[in-house]
Amino acid sequence: MLLTRSLRFAPRSLVSTRLLSFTQADQPRVRIGSTAPNFQVDTTHGKIDFHEFIGNNWTILFSHPKDFTPICTTELGAFSRLKPEFDKRGVKLIGLSVEDVDSHKAWIKDIEDIEKQKFQFPIIADGKREVAFKYDMVTEEDFKNLESGLIATIRSVFIIDPLKKVRAMVIYPPSIGRNTSEILRTIDALQLADKKGVVTPVDWQLGDDVIIPPTVSDEAAKEKFGEFKKVKPYLRYTSSK
């Protein structure tokens, strides 16, 4: 994917002016368990304060290298198709790309034409690279040039809980499309873990057995979960239902 090369010839109107100071020392440290950095931006649904947008919901924030790019178009189409599934889980979706709102809205028309359905969640206009900076959404090389021209965000996904805590992160380079089913599976695992105090094994799917954490004694496990299968003292399975 020759995205980086093509961006060099982007129209001057797409190149952001120097509006922020991007230094490593000022960059928030976004880790699992940290509070998701807040920001105020324009989106295709109007201006938002991100923490107010989250409210008391789970939220998925995901970035895209550029509008009107092929992989991003397929990804946004997939998220659009899966929105009813995220809605069932109380999860809000919000995308991001570095172009302006008018560009996003034109791009959405293409996505709706392909998917044959209405596109219903907002896309952030991050022309100042403020969100890309706060969430460290760029490569090491691009970070050094963040103020000097059009920089593509890599494919970052942040799963944020109702307490505004980052619970999971997935990061891909621009050339690889994301797996939306895996993102949905991660939401299921996180919500189940919070609800039942369990953890999930490799390749777990909704409805599969789960693992009792080693910090729970056999006596406490029997009282809390009822029957369980003990493979090793530290590996005990129980039903997720």
From TrEMBL:
Xref: InterPro entries: AhpC/TSA (IPR000866), Peroxiredoxin (IPR050217), Peroxiredoxin_AhpC-typ (IPR024706), Peroxiredoxin_C (IPR019479), PRX_1cys (IPR045020), Thioredoxin-like_sf (IPR036249), Thioredoxin_domain (IPR013766)
Q: Which UniProt keywords apply?
A: Antioxidant, Oxidoreductase, Peroxidase, Redox-active center
List the Pfam families.
Answer: 1-cysPrx_C, AhpC-TSA
One GO cellular-component annotation of the UniProt record comes to:
cytosol
List the active-site residues: C72 (cysteine sulfenic acid (-soh) intermediate)
Q: Name one GO molecular function term.
A: thioredoxin peroxidase activity
Q: Where is the Thioredoxin domain?
A: 30-192
Q: What's an example GO BP annotation here?
A: response to oxidative stress
Q: Which family would the database say this protein is a member of?
A: Belongs to the peroxiredoxin family. Prx6 subfamily.
**UniProt function note:** Thiol-specific peroxidase that catalyzes the reduction of hydrogen peroxide and organic hydroperoxides to water and alcohols, respectively.
The name on file for this protein is Thioredoxin domain-containing protein
